[in-house]
């Protein structure tokens, strides 16, 4: 017997020695199982495509600045206007992630150019393309969550479908899985790698002569797992914590059921494949980084140096040690939290997940315990780091769904009767309806109504630029054009409050925004670092009179130079409602010589609440009047 179920006959191999197998109540024909998997994947691809085109809100800038901006520069060149943040200038990030989107950009643009599509239509496709591509990765993440649950609980169990419904109906998944975060791709890579991992390593061979990792199919499965895991680690080095936890229990068998040890031949095979697959993946990454940066670089080292040695991560915020316990896991799992916690707790004790006809086998309990140990390892280690974000533990979500699936199944379904073992009866229906309603409302609000303005304002700016400069709508490197001398938009918002070139698109659309580069040249704990203020901080710094912004506008944005105001006056100024009074006061006072007469030409609602007071209220576009824009009706 093989630890792999009948759903994967291609990965099985005839042998006199059979791997331990999870008991089955009944057996499905392999073709039925394969057709079922194909149907589920097809539905998930459609579902996540709808998910991707439904997301109309802004979450965090890394979605764009750590993926799409470098991807844009890959596709359209360094003169394309992409905003490469300090991490890319100091090689902290692997190029593997943006290369995916860069190639997609370049391929789609080349095809549309060959087909002679109209420029505004090209821009619409390019803006939507990354999310649509990410929807495929998101669907694969859901699919492998179901596949791994099937691997553990068996095709006869309904627990895999409970895990599938949990990942589909989870608000966090709907909100984040189709966003182009490296964490989103890391999550898919991790759950796929866990599916292909040879769980036969955890079997108790006391009563069996089977030796793990001796068949060709098992080794090939290990190789796929290791390559996927290596890519995940290169994208996010903290992903290594998951695999350290799994390897620790697989090799040492600490806390696992069974008395046997892992054979030396299996350990040798495991170490050999880790070395080969890790080196091959690392080699591809190094070559990719060499082509991208133009010189040899090793981003994982740079990441550790700047974030650990230089302590620059704390510049972006510090959280208490219990953040992942008190906020991170609850935000990931939402209404499924109790079931995930029960699954995590019982996996540590190897308790049976349900009153089923068959109790947990040794290999089942060992797999669940190992997954639970990986969760605890990552949360514990990341809790020791000051800078914390929910996204950092996102790869644990599929595992939590799998651990919690049997308990949500037994809570909401009645045990089958002896007369009818095929019919599933729902119970606690009102409670089930309530938690599903909460999930759907959360998903709908977060994807449609919470901070939509940062995306819609760029649509306004891009389409207005198309209206005013129809003859300059090219993605080729911009050439000097006497007809375009204007700074089209100035963003007086907190740093990275909107996407950038991935939504502005055209290189000729010149824009400027407040920056927030960290204090790279200062030493940890120094006075210079403690008193450092980035550009956005200087704009929002409170002055003696209690207000903010006037000094920055007077001294940095439009300073006096030989008795005249320097600096460019834009066609549009973009900011949240709170800065309007500051701007009006400046342009009617010290900056009156600039000739600016502000008028609102666009405003967008930005959600019912925002944790950052600087981003509260509507996002507004003011026309400065300097560039002679014709009268228009205010848009909302």
TrEMBL record:
Keyword hit for Membrane: yes
GO molecular function annotation: alpha-1,2-mannosyltransferase activity
Coiled coil (UniProt feature): none
Residue spans crossing the bilayer: 226-252, 264-288, 300-317, 329-347, 367-385, 392-410, 430-448
Pathway per the UniProt entry: Glycolipid biosynthesis; glycosylphosphatidylinositol-anchor biosynthesis
EC number: 2.4.1.-
One Pfam family linked to the record: Glyco_transf_22
Keywords for the protein's UniProt record, in alphabetical order: Endoplasmic reticulum, Glycosyltransferase, GPI-anchor biosynthesis, Membrane, Transferase, Transmembrane, Transmembrane helix
Localisation per UniProt entry: Endoplasmic reticulum membrane
Keyword hit for rRNA-binding: no
One GO process term, biological-process aspect: GPI anchor biosynthetic process
Membrane topology summary: Multi-pass membrane protein
Main location: endoplasmic reticulum
Primary enzyme class: transferase
Gene Ontology CC: endoplasmic reticulum membrane
InterPro entries per the UniProt record, alphabetical: GPI_mannosylTrfase
Family: Belongs to the glycosyltransferase 22 family. PIGB subfamily.
Function: Mannosyltransferase involved in glycosylphosphatidylinositol-anchor biosynthesis. Transfers the third mannose to Man2-GlcN-acyl-PI during GPI precursor assembly.
The protein's name in its UniProt record: Mannosyltransferase
Native organism: Lasiosphaeris hirsuta
């Amino acid at each position: 017997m093989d630890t792999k179920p009948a759903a994967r006959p291609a990965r099985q191999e005839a042998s006199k020695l059979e791997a331990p197998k999870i008991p089955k109540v009944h057996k499905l024909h392999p073709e039925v199982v394969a057709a079922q998997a194909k149907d589920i994947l097809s539905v998930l691809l459609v579902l996540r495509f709808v998910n991707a085109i439904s997301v109309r809100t802004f979450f965090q800038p890394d979605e764009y600045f750590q993926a799409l901006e470098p991807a844009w520069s890959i596709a359209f060149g360094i003169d394309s206007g992409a905003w490469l943040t300090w991490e890319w200038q100091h090689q902290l990030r692997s190029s593997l992630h943006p290369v995916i989107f860069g190639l997609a950009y370049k391929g789609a643009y080349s095809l549309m150019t060959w087909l002679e599509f109209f420029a505004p239509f090209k821009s619409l496709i390019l803006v939507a393309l990354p999310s649509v591509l990410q929807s495929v990765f998101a669907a694969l993440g859901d699919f492998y969550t179901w596949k791994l649950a099937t691997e553990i609980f068996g095709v006869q169990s309904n627990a895999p479908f409970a895990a599938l419904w949990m990942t589909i109906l989870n608000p966090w998944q709907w909100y984040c899985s189709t966003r182009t975060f490296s964490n989103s791709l890391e999550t898919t890579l991790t759950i796929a790698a866990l599916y292909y991992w040879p769980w036969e390593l955890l079997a108790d061979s006391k009563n069996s002569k089977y030796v793990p990792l001796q068949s060709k199919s098992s080794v090939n499965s290990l190789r796929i797992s290791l390559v996927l895991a290596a890519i995940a680690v290169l994208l996010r080095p903290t992903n290594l914590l998951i695999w350290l936890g799994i390897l620790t229990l697989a090799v040492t068998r600490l806390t696992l059921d069974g008395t046997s040890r892992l054979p030396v031949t299996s350990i040798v095979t495991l170490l050999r494949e880790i070395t080969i697959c890790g080196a091959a993946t690392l080699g591809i990454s190094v070559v990719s980084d060499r082509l991208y940066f133009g010189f040899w670089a090793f981003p994982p080292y740079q990441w550790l140096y700047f974030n650990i040695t230089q302590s620059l991560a704390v510049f972006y915020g510090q959280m208490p040690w219990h953040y992942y316990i008190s906020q991170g896991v609850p935000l990931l799992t939402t209404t499924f939290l109790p079931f995930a916690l029960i699954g995590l707790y019982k996996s540590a004790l190897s308790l049976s997940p349900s009153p089923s006809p068959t109790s947990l086998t040794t290999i089942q309990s060992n797999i669940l315990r190992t997954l639970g140990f990986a969760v605890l390892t990552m949360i514990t280690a990341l809790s020791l780091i000051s800078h914390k974000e929910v996204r950092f533990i996102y790869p644990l979500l599929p595992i939590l769904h799998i651990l919690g699936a049997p308990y949500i199944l037994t809570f909401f379904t009645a045990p089958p009767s002896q007369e009818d073992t095929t019919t599933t009866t729902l119970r606690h229906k009102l409670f089930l309806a309530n938690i599903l309603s909460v999930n759907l409302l959360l998903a709908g609000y977060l994807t449609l109504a919470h901070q939509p303005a940062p995306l819609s304002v760029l649509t306004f700016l891009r389409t207005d630029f198309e209206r005013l400069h129809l003859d300059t709508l090219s993605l080729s490197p911009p050439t000097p054009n006497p007809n375009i001398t204007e700074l089209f938009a100035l963003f007086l918002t907190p740093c990275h409050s909107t996407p950038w070139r991935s939504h502005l698109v055209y290189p000729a659309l010149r824009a400027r925004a407040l920056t927030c580069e960290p204090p790279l040249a200062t030493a940890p704990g120094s006075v210079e670092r403690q008193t450092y203020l980035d550009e956005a901080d200087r704009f929002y710094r409170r002055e003696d009179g209690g207000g903010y912004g006037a000094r920055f506008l007077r001294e940095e944005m439009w300073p006096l130079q030989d008795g005249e105001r320097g600096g460019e006056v834009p066609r549009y100024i973009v900011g949240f409602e709170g800065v309007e009074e500051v701007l009006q006061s400046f342009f009617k006072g010290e900056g009156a010589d600039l000739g600016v007469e502000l008028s609102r030409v666009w405003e967008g609602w930005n959600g019912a609440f925002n944790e950052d007071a600087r981003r509260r209220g509507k996002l507004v576009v003011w026309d400065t009047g300097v560039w002679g824009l014709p009268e228009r009706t205010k848009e909302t």
